[in-house]
């Protein structure tokens, strides 16, 4: 048995025939509201003032092709994590439609969940259990055969740079970067047809980032996996993504290939040939990804 065999043993979830878009978003809308204080006496000024609503995802429409690595760039609080939660059925949209391989995320939620997996920067674990035990627990939730899942888990963790002895170490003894690798392995374990990566390499060292990026490219090449990625790392977006959308205050303000975006902005600012995605982001939003963000009322600061 070669080291590559476990990847082939677990089949990816079945998806519709070629020609169907991996992800279709039409006019997606999500808002959050601050509930009014029912304890406020009716005679107090503003007691009947309507609740303040904040639009987190504002009429977004886009299509992701099958087999594409699609990137979403946005500052903290721009709505990118809310959008991923809508796609992954964790939030219910307040308007519009979202379809994954033709399946509606609201009406066909269970089918959608079999086709996707999500890796988030705030992944939760059983910290007393080892990396391998956490992955085996996830495998049982997806009804994966135990023996094959164990081989697959060991293979992925080794590919992500975890040594054999770390597989049996409790998660609470691992660094945040190591725990993030386990979260990524958990997302890849089911060989999803659509992989949702919400800032997956945050907290990883440069070598670990490269390991993750190489594995994602391998998933697309070997298993026709479609990837929807949010990231703060401009080099990561440039290296991985076929197309990039820039989101600002809940709206898509630009969408094209990295090369076309850089070419268009380069001609405007006179930096043809040396334009970066940072230049592109600044031009479309007027801010840096590192800018501090003051969340609006009604939106959790950790939401983005």
What key attributes describe this structure?
disordered N terminus; four-stranded antiparallel β-sheet; six-stranded mixed β-sheet; Rossmann fold; 21% strand; 10 helices; alpha/beta; 304 residues
Structure summary:
With 304 residues, the protein is an alpha/beta fold. It is 34% helix and 21% strand. The longest helix is centred in the C-terminal third of the chain and has 18 residues, at 206-223.
**CATH arch. level architecture of the domain at 18-34 and 50-124 and 194-285:** 3-Layer(aba) Sandwich
Helix content: 25-40%
User: What is the number of helical segments per DSSP (H or I, 4+ residues)?
Assistant: 10
Average predicted local confidence, pLDDT: 80
Note the beta-strand portion.
Answer: 15-25%
If you consult CATH, what is the topology of the domain at 18-34 and 50-124 and 194-285?
Rossmann fold
Please tally the β strands and state the result. Answer: 10
Instruction: Summarize the helix and strand pattern as letters.
Output: HEEEHEEHEHHHEHEHEEHH
Main pleated sheet: 6 strands, mixed
CATH class of the domain at 18-34 and 50-124 and 194-285: Alpha Beta
How would you write the strand order of the largest sheet? 6-7-8-3-9-10
């Amino acid at each position: 048995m070669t080291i590559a065999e476990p990847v082939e043993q677990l089949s990816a979830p079945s998806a519709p025939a070629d020609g169907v878009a991996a992800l279709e978003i039409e006019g997606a809308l999500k808002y959050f509201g601050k509930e009014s204080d029912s304890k406020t006496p009716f005679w107090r000024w503003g007691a009947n003032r309507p609740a303040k609503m904040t639009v987190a995802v504002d009429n977004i429409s886009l299509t992701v092709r099958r087999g594409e690595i699609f990137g979403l760039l946005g500052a903290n609080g721009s709505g990118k994590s809310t959008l991923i939660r809508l796609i992954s059925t964790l939030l219910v949209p307040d308007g519009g439609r979202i379809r994954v391989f033709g399946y509606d995320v609201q009406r066909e939620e269970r089918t959608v969940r079999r086709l996707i997996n999500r890796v988030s920067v705030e992944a939760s674990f059983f910290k007393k259990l080892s990396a391998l035990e956490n992955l085996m627990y996830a495998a049982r939730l997806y009804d994966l055969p135990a023996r094959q899942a164990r081989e697959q888990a060991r293979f992925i963790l080794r590919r992500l740079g975890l040594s054999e002895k770390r597989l049996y170490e409790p998660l609470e003894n691992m660094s945040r970067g190591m725990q993030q690798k386990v979260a990524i392995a958990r997302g890849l374990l089911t060989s999803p047809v659509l992989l949702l990566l919400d800032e997956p390499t945050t907290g990883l060292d440069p070598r670990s980032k490269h390991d993750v990026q190489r594995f994602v490219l391998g998933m697309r090449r070997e298993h026709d996996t479609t990837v929807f990625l949010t990231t703060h790392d401009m080099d990561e977006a440039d290296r991985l993504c076929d197309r990039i959308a820039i989101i600002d205050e809940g709206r898509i303000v630009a969408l094209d290939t990295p090369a076309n975006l850089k070419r268009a902005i380069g001609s405007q600012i006179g930096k043809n040939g040396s334009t970066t995605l940072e230049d592109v982001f600044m031009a479309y939003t007027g801010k840096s990804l590192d800018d501090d963000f003051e969340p609006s009322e009604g939106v959790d600061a950790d939401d983005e």
